Amino acid sequence: MLNVSGQEWKLIHEEDFSSSDTKTKLTTDRNPWMVDKYEEPFDTIMDDPGLWYINDYGPAFTEQLDSFDTYRKEILFGTDDWLTASLSARDWNKDGVIETEPVLKIETSTNEKSVLTIEVDDHTGGAIVRPTKALPDEYRIEFKLTMIDFGGKRNGSIEYDNRVNGYSAVGCKTQHPWGEGSKSQGWTGNASVSYCEWQDVRRGRYGYNGFHFLSIVDFANPAPRNNHFWHYRRKVLMDAFSQHPDRVGDGPGGQVCNVITGEYTAYRDSSFNTINMWISGLPNWRPGKGGLAGNKQLFMTSCNGGVATRGVASAAELQPEVLEIGSVGNFSNVDFQTLRYYRPFVVDDEPIWHYNIKPEEYDGRYNGNLQQIDYNFGNMTWHDQWPAGSAYPDYFVIGDLYTNVYEGRASLTDIKYFEPDRHEEDNVDNNNTDDDTDDETSTDIKGPTLDPTGDDANKLTQIPTPVNEVSHEAQEPSRAATAHDLPAITTFVPIGIF
Q1: Computed over its alpha carbons, how large is the radius of gyration of the chain?
Q2: What is the mean pLDDT of the chain?
Q3: Which of the four pLDDT bands, split at 50, 70 and 90, describes residue 260?
Q4: How confident is the model at residue 432 (pLDDT cuts 50, 70, 90)?
Q5: How high is the pLDDT of residue 424?
Q6: Which residues are bridge partners to 461 per DSSP?
Q7: DSSP secondary-structure letter at 5?
Q8: Residue 165 Rama label (left phi>0; alpha psi -120 to 50; beta)
Q9: Does the pLDDT value for residue 28 go beyond 80?
Q10: Distance in angstroms (rounded) separating the CA atoms of residues 279 and 213
Q11: Contact yes or no for 387/364 (Cβ under 8 A)
């Protein structure tokens, strides 16, 4: 198996959920639920008890946050415990009993494969799979999705099986207590209102469901958190974003690429079951009063030549009804496809947010201060959000990351982790008999041969494939860099469906 630079990949770990050890670890209650007191938050910005919310909503936010308990659980599994399942649940009345726990269970698919099913029956729960340790400089991640039911239409309807866009139709379901900001639509902006008066996640302006097929985030040991926290912590992402027709409104609601014709159709004309493939750009360093922090979202499709651009644009439309009966890999209107997208660290002075996992990969040129100015209950500046000398680990996450949005179930199997085959690389070096190699050649940056400053700056390779399974991959071919010439680095982040 080759990466984009022609280098061989070596399989390091594989999890197919068939071993008795994995089944025992994932299906027993040996790991207790623990109340999260937020004694070690991931950041002070928009983590669950974040100052951003306090400055916007005031003391009422703290009261709302204290009205329930959040419980966490982590389970290590796989060979040498290379994977971690991280779960979150809400105890609504703080009586020590979780009303609706998220569930991980191993099931047998219609083709007799063992699969891991992630089941989140309340949108305040969360469940993800991540690596136990940080990823290295170069890696490749694959898995096979066998079922997805986190919103979207079924048989042309957004309402089915007593659910609305994948959410249970029973009771209220809102973003409480992490709203879209005091000045956003869909509520009064007053954090003291009751739970049901916060922004609805089923219908209305903020009605949407979704699932993270594969994200690369910028901090260690990720765990489910409120959705706004993640908008500032992701590097690369493949996800489903299933909007309710109320959110789409009279507009197109985004675009969906037909990879055969190379033309877009309106999201509103789709089944609302699409896959987005995108990167995070720089943040808005000073959001408007009553708004939230977040990064540019730059989407990549074959319809735009693989160039990362603004505006919601889905790479393909899925057929979840087909997935549910075990025929994995069908895309609506286009049969089986292999999509690969390659994007350098920097294109047209737009970097991939927090890309560097080592200080020497970056010189600080995109540093900035995140400012929350003239908010209702306080101001704050978080200095040096990407300074020289900083570094941000790579961790992948698969599943439902959000603890105030998203509800449903999905199944996956065959998670594979690859690293470059260094033995093969050594053989190539040993066979090089050219003794005239000068210093410049001996320190060449390794990576793809594409020109990152020319027509190949955003490169898409689209390969039809007859197989009936689809896996999701993120890989890092190279991270070598020089601090004085970042825009010319031959480093790429391929993300794709295979």
Answers
A1: 22
A2: 84
A3: confident
A4: very low
A5: 55
A6: 340
A7: T
A8: left
A9: no
A10: 14
A11: yes
The tens digit of pLDDT for each residue in 141-185 reads 999 999 999 999 999 999 999 999 999 999 999 999 999 999 999
**Burial of 169 from C-beta contacts in 10 A (0-12 / 13-18 / 19+):** exposed
Which residues make beta-bridge pairs with 126? 88
Cβ atoms within 10 A of the Cβ of 101, count?
A: 20
Residue whose token pair is 């991980």: 104
Residue 445 pLDDT greater than 50, yes or no: no
What are 24's two structure tokens?
């025992």
Average pLDDT over residues 55-78: 97
Assigned token pair, 211:
């699932």
In Å, how far from its chain's centre is CA 497? Answer: 14
Q: State the chain's maximal CA–CA distance in angstroms.
A: 75
- At 442, which helix (H) or strand (E)? helix 439-442
φ/ψ (deg, to 5) at 279: -120, 160
Average pLDDT over residues 1-9: 62
Pair 432, 169: CB distance under 8 Å: no
Lookup result for tokens 């901090």: 219
The Cα–Cα gap between 4 and 448 comes to: 6
Of the candidates 83, 458, 464, 54, which has an alpha carbon nearest to the alpha carbon of residue 278? 458
| Whether 242 contacts 270, CB under 8 Å | no
